[in-house]
């Protein structure tokens, strides 16, 4: 912003009031996280949050998460199993989605076929049907084919092609100059070679963001996952955690806290590191050039 | 352009096939179920019943479930979007101060709730708001405020949902507003300052009128998203507290979580399907308005 660079008395007052409001907002938004951290390092089974700072710090709750259950009746969480299941589903869906989105975006960006002009619009309109609309039918069909409680069935259910992603990626591919393709065509390259050797490497950053995005989305997915997955062995992190905390809140709270911190940390780190790219991805979707 | 190349369909095939099998086919089935009596009593021998399910929901015996749930879903979506936007915009305006040198530090801290996985955060909130053991009531006690019935009282359960949703979503609104603020020409403020306008005058006469048109598409799509917001309600209050007049929906249940319960707990596929179609028409109308506003489909051709 241009203009005066010195501060008037009024500017100084506004600045300090702003700071105080922002500090309050920061405290309020970090407070819940702080309570969870305190709970996760506090001692003992039954939990009663009485202090703002932990009296005694222990990492027992974190260590317990990785201990093997000796009997199924034990209330230890199957944290390692949940993480494994979540990773299988998240990686599966993210890879499948890239595998389906990238060629489709390439077709819309570079190949001339009947229906190209209106195809994407049609897909976007059809995409307006929300996923939960398919919920009763998906449940009914999976039950019929005995595919309930199956991680791979869940991957397939969640990995349906996304018109929105195709649209985003097509926009990204459109920005790659067509002259590069022409040069390659003169050298005798066909579509597959151009797609693999030119377009994919040049859109790699966008693909990476989409991968993380869908990974994060699937990690957070609850509705369809809880519909499909039923046995405790197949629970993903959110489903496992939910059952764990709903069983016996006061006794399970410290370990729940430890587990939720461990499960969130990688995503928080990735998000913070890629904040710029994720935001520009959002912007690319929202604003049309 | 050049000649037609049918090879394009090969590139489209994986996406198209998956969409056909996983989205369109189940949705078509849903539409079909909505006109049948496919439920626990008719698992194999279900038959076509016409518009009966829709009539039952809107004017018939399920009116008791639908009408209050619809009203709450609408209120929830509207209020939550307005609160989240107001807080996000306020923080964005405060952060957008040229004299505040440390503004980037604040921004990265304030974004943390956005980065924490929403389902895990919602579950944690369920614990924090626990009436007996939860940290929030403990905190209130240390300030000599009576503990609040976050889960058992319909009013406070709704307040909990608003609080959790605000905590989860204000960073997004803040970011969006910060982006939109950049599009306001600084000259406007300079002129206003020369005329002696104060902070509030500038906020209400320049910033808000300039930012609302830019933010409108985001607000509308957030409204549509909130309408379908299953996770927060289901994970924080579970739809509770229960209503006395019906078992199908609690006081905080949204249309989507009611559909989920109808499917999963009561095996009323017929009603759940009809309900999905009603929700789709509401959300679809909102999305259409939004597309008209943003003119999303203009351009986009190479």
Q: What does this protein structure show overall?
A:
Chain B: It is found in: Cell membrane. Chain B: Keywords: Cell membrane, Membrane, Sugar transport, Transmembrane, Transmembrane helix, Transport. Chain B: Residues 70-290 form the ABC transmembrane type-1 domain. The complex is a heterodimer of chains A (289) and B (302). In chain A, 71% of the residues lie in helices and 0% in strands. Chain A is built from 14 helices and no strands. In chain A, helix 3 crosses helix 10 (204-220) and helix 12 (237-247) runs antiparallel to helix 13. By secondary structure, chain A is an all-alpha fold. Helix content of chain B is 68%, strand content 0%. Chain B has 302 residues and is an all-alpha fold. The interface between A and B is large, with 107 and 107 residues.
Give a summary of the structure in a few sentences.
The complex is a heterodimer of chains A (289) and B (302). Chain A is an all-alpha fold and 289 residues long.
């Amino acid at each position: 912003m241009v203009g005066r660079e010195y501060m008037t008395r009024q500017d100084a007052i506004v600045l300090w009031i702003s700071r105080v409001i922002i500090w309050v907002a920061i405290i309020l938004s970090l407070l819940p996280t702080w309570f969870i951290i305190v709970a996760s390092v506090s001692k003992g089974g039954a939990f009663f949050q009485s202090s703002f700072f932990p009296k005694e710090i222990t990492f027992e709750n974190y260590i317990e998460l990785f201990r093997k259950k000796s009997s199924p009746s034990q209330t230890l969480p199957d944290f390692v199993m949940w993480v494994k299941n979540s990773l299988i589903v998240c990686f599966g869906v993210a890879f499948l989605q890239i595998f389906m989105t990238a060629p489709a975006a390439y077709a819309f960006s570079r190949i001339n076929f009947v229906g190209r002009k209106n195809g994407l619009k049609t897909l976007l309109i059809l995409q307006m049907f929300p996923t939960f609309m398919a919920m009763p039918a998906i449940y009914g069909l999976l039950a019929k084919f005995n595919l309930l409680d199956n991680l791979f069935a869940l991957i397939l259910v969640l990995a349906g092609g996304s018109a929105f992603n195709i649209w985003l990626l097509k926009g990204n591919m459109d920005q790659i100059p067509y002259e590069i393709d022409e040069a390659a065509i003169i050298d005798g390259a066909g579509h597959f070679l151009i797609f693999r050797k030119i377009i994919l490497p040049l859109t790699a950053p966008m693909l990476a963001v989409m991968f993380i995005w869908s990974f994060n989305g699937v990690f957070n997915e609850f509705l369809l996952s809880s519909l499909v997955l039923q046995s405790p062995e197949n629970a993903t992190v959110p489903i496992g955690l939910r059952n764990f905390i709903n069983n016996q809140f006061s006794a399970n709270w410290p370990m729940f806290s430890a587990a939720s911190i461990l499960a969130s940390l990688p995503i928080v780190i990735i998000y913070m590191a890629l904040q710029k790219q994720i935001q520009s991805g959002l912007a690319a979707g929202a604003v049309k050039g | 352009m050049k000649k037609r190349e049918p090879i394009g369909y090969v590139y489209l095939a994986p996406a198209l096939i998956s969409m056909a099998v996983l989205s369109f086919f189940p949705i078509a089935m849903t539409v079909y179920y909505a006109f049948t009596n496919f439920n626990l009593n008719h698992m194999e021998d279900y038959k076509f019943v016409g518009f009966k399910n829709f009539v039952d929901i809107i004017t018939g015996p399920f009116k008791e479930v639908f009408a209050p749930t619809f009203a709450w879903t609408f209120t929830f979506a509207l209020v939550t979007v307005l609160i989240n936007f107001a807080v996000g915009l306020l923080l964005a305006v405060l952060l957008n101060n040229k004299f505040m040198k440390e503004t980037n530090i604040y921004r990265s801290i304030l974004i943390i709730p956005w980065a924490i996985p929403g389902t895990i955060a919602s579950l944690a909130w369920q614990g924090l708001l626990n009436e007996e053991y939860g940290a929030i009531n403990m905190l209130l006690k240390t300030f000599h405020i009576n503990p609040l019935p976050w889960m058992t009282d319909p009013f406070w359960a709704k307040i909990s949902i608003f609080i959790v949703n605000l905590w989860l979503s204000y960073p997004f609104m803040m970011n969006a507003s910060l982006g939109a603020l950049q599009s306001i020409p600084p000259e406007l403020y300079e002129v206003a300052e020369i005329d002696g306008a104060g902070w509030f005058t500038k906020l209400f006469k320049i910033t808000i009128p300039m930012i609302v048109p830019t933010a409108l598409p985001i607000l509308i799509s957030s409204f549509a998203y909130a309408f379908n917001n299953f996770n927060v309600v289901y994970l924080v209050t579970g739809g509770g507290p229960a209503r006395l007049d019906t078992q199908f929906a609690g006081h905080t249940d949204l249309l989507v979580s009611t559909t989920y319960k109808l499917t999963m707990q009561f095996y009323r596929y017929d009603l759940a399907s009809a309900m999905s179609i009603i929700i789709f028409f509401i959300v679809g109308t909102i999305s259409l308005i939004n597309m008209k506003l943003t003119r999303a489909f203009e351009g986009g051709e190479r």
